[in-house]
C-alpha cells in the first residue's frame, strides 16, 4: 500500500467508467433520432404520455437516489449503526398517500406541470411562487448531486475534481437536451442496474474479505452496530423510529407526492392505473436500495472495526470512507473499483438528468409559455436550450457546494425538508382546505420558508463542530482537536439561549419537512381566515 494511502485506478477501471458515459450518451442519441425525434414539447417533457410502469418505477427511485445516498448511508451506518435503516418504514405511507391522493388528482387534471394545479386552485401568483421555490430547491440539490461523486473520486484516487464534474455534467446535459424525458427515463433504468450491480459486487467481495458471512456478522454485532428500534419520543434525537418513520413520511410526500420531477413521470405514463402501479413498485426498489447501502456500511465495519481509515488519517471526511474502502479492498480485483465508481456516477447522473429535464419543463411551462406565444418547434428548441442552461448552472452550483462543507446525506435531506417541506405544505393547503385563499397561500409559503431557514441555519450554527471543518487544517487530528475545543464554548453559548429557541434549533433534521409544511398550512389558514373576514375585522376594529 502507498504510505499516504493514495489509491490508483487501473486502465480497466477507466474503461468501465468511460463505458458508462458512452452508453448513457448512446441512449440519449437513440431517443433523439427515433420516435418523434423530440420535435414536440409533449415528447420532450412527457414522453408522449406513453410510458409503462416498470421503467417509470426505476426512474422514480433513481431521481432522488444519488451518490449522496450511496456514500452517505454506509458512512452513517458505519459510524452509528443500523438505526437509519428504519427510514424504510416511512416508505409505506410515503408512497401510499401519493399513489391514492396526489396521483389520481394530478393525472385527471391532465396538468402540464404540477404548479399549474396551484393556479387552478389559487391564482397565477401562487403558481409562480411554487415554481420559483422548486427551481431553488433543485438547483441547490443538483449541485450537491454532481459534486459528491467527483469529490470522493478526487480524494481517494487523485482523479481531477473539476475534470470529473465537467465530464459528467457535459454528458448528462447532452443526453438530457437531445433525448428528452424518454432518454432520461431509459438512462435511469440502465444506471439503476449499474448502481445495484456495483453495490452488490462490493458487498460480496467485502464479506469475503471480512472472513465470510458468520465472521462478518459477529464483528458487527460485537461492535454494537446492529441497532434495536429506538422509540425515544424526543424530537431532537437525530435518528429514532419517530424521526425516521414518521418525520420521513413528510419528506417522502414532498419528494414523491408534489415534486415536479416525480409528478412529470406520473403524468407521462400511459394510464392512471400504470402511474399508480409505478408508485407502488417504487416501494420494493427503494427497500433494495436502502438495504444495499446499509449492508455496505455493515461490511465496512466488519472489515475495519473501529480502526477506520479516517482514524488512520488516510482520508479527511466520513464521506470518503466508502470509496476508500472499495479501492482498499478491491485492489486485487481489476475492474471492480471502476464498476463501483460507475455505480456512484450512475446514481448521480440519473439524479441530475431528472433535475435538468424537470427544471427545463417548469421554466418553459410555468414561466415562459404563459407570457410569450410561440410555435411548437420554437418552444421545443427553447426547452432544449433551457436544459443546456441548467447543465451549466449545475456545474456552477457544484462550485458553490465546493465552498461549503458538510456531511452530504444530511445536507441533501435538509434541503429536501427546508425547501421541499414548504412546497408540500402549499399543496396540502390547496388540496385539503377548501377555505384557504391565495393571500393565505402566499403568506403561508413565505412563513414556511422563513421557518425553514431560521431553524435550519440556526441548527447548523449551533452545531459548531460541523462548521469548524471549513477552517484550514493540516490533518484530521487538528480538526478533531479544534472541534473539541470549540464544542465547549458552543454548548455554553447554546445553554445561555432561551430554552425554547434552543430546543427548536436542535430539532432533528428529519422533522424539517413536517415542521415546515405544517407551518405553511397553519399560517395559510390563519391568514385566509383573517382576509376572508376582512370586512368583519375592520368593522370590529372600528367598533
Ligand atoms: C430519498 C430517500 C430518503 C429515500 O430513501 C433516499 O433516496 C435518500 O436518502 N436520498 C438522499 C439524497 C440523495 O441520494 O441524493
Ligand atoms: Na440518481
Describe this protein's structure.
By secondary structure, this protein is mainly alpha-helical. It has a single domain, classed as Sodium/glucose cotransporter (Up-down Bundle), CATH 1.20.1730. 77% of the residues lie in helices and 0% in strands. Helix 14 (336-368) packs across helix 15. Sodium ion is lined by residues 62, 65-66, 347, 350-351. Sodium ion (NA) is lined by residues 62, 65-66, 347, 350-351.
In short:
By secondary structure, this protein is mainly alpha-helical.
How would the blueprint of this fold be written?
Blueprint: H1 11-33, H2 41-46, H3 53-63, H4 67-80, H5 90-109, H6 114-121, H7 124-157, H8 161-209, H9 213-222, H10 241-257, H11 260-267, H12 272-304, H13 321-329, H14 336-368, H15 376-403, H16 408-432, H17 438-462, H18 464-468, H19 476-496, H20 499-505, H21 512-532, H22 534-542
This protein binds pantothenoic acid and sodium ion.
